[in-house]
Amino acid sequence: MILDADGITLNVSPDHKFGSDSVLLANFINVRRKDIIYDLCTGSGIIPALLAKKRPKIIYAVDISREAITLLEKSVNDNNLDFVIPICADLRTMSPINAADLVTVNPPYFKQGTGKTRNSPEQAAARHEISCNLSDIAAAAGRLLKYGGYLKMCHKPERLADVICTLREHNLEPKEITFIVNKGKQTPRLFLLSAKKGGKAGCGVTIDN
Predict the structure, then answer these.
(1) Which of 71, 150, 169, 183 has the fewest CB atoms within 10 Å around its CB?
(2) What distance in Å separates the CA atoms of residue 79 and residue 186, rounded to the nearest whole number?
(3) In Å, how far from its chain's centre is CA 142?
(4) Is the predicted pLDDT of residue 9 greater than 90, yes or no?
(5) pLDDT of 125 over the 70 cut
(6) d(CA 73, CA 3)
């Protein structure tokens, strides 16, 4: 199955699709042409596909799932995105250090044993902390980012405290949080967060509905 991602055709499967959260996160991210970017838990590659239109220097798209990376490799070839590099790897053991200007991630939201279950192992791993947890992601971002580089991520509001505490353990200081509130609702369903490696304390908060 092929979906149109803002002018880029993206190969997806029932186990590797994308939702509005990834699109919101991509729109939240400012990209410079010189940027080196790592997108973790990339899935079918929706975030790299959208960021590619902003023409950074290079985007490494990382996922532990061979099926997801195979889909992304086809999308890269179909759209001539030679600066998007799919990588099938476990983010917990990735070795590059201090290489990235930006790390982006739409992570698994739910701890194991919480949230709605999914039918396939691939779907479960995308939603639940099975292949990696919040600490693993923060540690990977901390290793990959240059000093002064930024992590951009989304997550569920009920885990905001977990996210902030975990990021600070890895020298990633939250600098900006945007809460996403659906029209007609009073409570946010999502937040977008920007954290700076080695940043000073101080965080701005906005609401987008």
Answers:
(1) 183
(2) 40
(3) 14
(4) no
(5) no
(6) 15
